[in-house]
Amino acid sequence: MKVISTVPHHSVVKQCVCRKCGSTLEYTPNDVTENPVTDYTGCTDIYKVINCGNCGTEITVS
Ligand SMILES: [Zn+2]
Question: What is the pTM of this model?
Fold first, then answer.
């Protein structure tokens, strides 16, 4: 296996806007943290979150 580029390919790079500071963020699946949250019925939802590189706010992504 040979790595020909470590720059994230555009097919995996996503963008979102921080709702707090308004920065446009570019992220790859590597930057996403999966946060399992169990609600009162016992169902577990996985929230995918990233942290804004500017203000540190946690942002839920899909
Ligand atoms: Zn921010």
Answer: 0.76
